[in-house]
Write a structure and sequence with these properties.
Elements: E1 11-17, E2 29-35, H1 39-48, E3 55-58, E4 64-66, E5 71-77, E6 85-88, E7 91-95, H2 100-109, H3 124-129, E8 133-134, E9 137-138, H4 139-142, E10 143-149, E11 155-159, E12 177-184, H5 190-207, E13 213-214, H6 239-245, E14 252-253, E15 256-258, E16 266-268, H7 274-292, E17 301-303
Parallel strand pairs: 2-5, 3-5, 4-17
Antiparallel strand pairs: 1-2, 6-7, 7-12, 8-9, 10-11, 10-12, 13-16, 14-15, 15-16
Length: about 300
Amino acid sequence: MTADLPEVRGTLTQDRPLADLTWMRVGGAADWLFQPADLDDLAQFMAALDPAIPVFPMGVGSNLIVRDGGVRAVVVRLGRGFNGITFDGTLVRVGAAALDAHVARTAAAQGLDLSFLRTIPGTIGGAVRMNAGCYGSYTGDVLVDVTVVLRDGTITTMDANALKLAYRQSTLPDGAVIVQALLKAPAGVRETLEQRMADQLAKRDETQPTKDRTAGSTFRNPAGFSSTGRAGDTHDLKAWKVIDDAGMRGATRGGAVMNMKHSNFLTNAGGATAADLEGLGEEVRKKVYDSIGITLVWEIMRVGEPNADT
């Protein structure tokens, strides 16, 4: 991308490699990486940016594969000016760059229950976009509204209902950047909440490969399929179970592996490319479909272009 971009007060970097900004540590460069100084800087940049230039908001890259050819867009990554947390009774106003785990801990200290966020990797902006959830609770359960900067630079507040939140998905205007969320948290007892979060962390560490390079759960659980095939059985399957049944636990491609500890965690075991990771994921999807007729849906977001020679 060679277009002249608007002046900014933040940091605007051309051809910025993105691999070190993702948990998977793979992928090419963004045409531009923009780290705005504050809300006005972001809004003014978006308003002045050529409408033909795509914008891609990026958090901490915890649920993302950047393809090896990079991203033909301006990648917007929010920093410290967007991670504040304030309280007004049971209402919690959170900057989009605030880490989910930090929000959970800070709320617990106030006697407010956002404990489900404690084990979710990433930021509040990503949690809203993906309606992230854990232990039966979802971001949509506590979300009141979000403040976004639209592609034309307009700053607006959207009611939670307007996002059409569903399992691991939401609806936002193209190019919109979430900058803040308003949450309504149930009351709780600090000590009880802290113990619950400690138990959740212990359970996660016991069952998930938290020390490996993953991007969280690779595929959504396949809703609407019974585990027995019997009429009236409404138990949804788990993605790891259908991957196991298809014989793909431990499957490899280049430096990518379906983790032995939890087979729904696509892992960079060392030296993997984005093509290795995405290619192995597609192999798993095909094998599961061929085995039991279920099409797994990616939960990890894949963005950008492949290398020309892959």
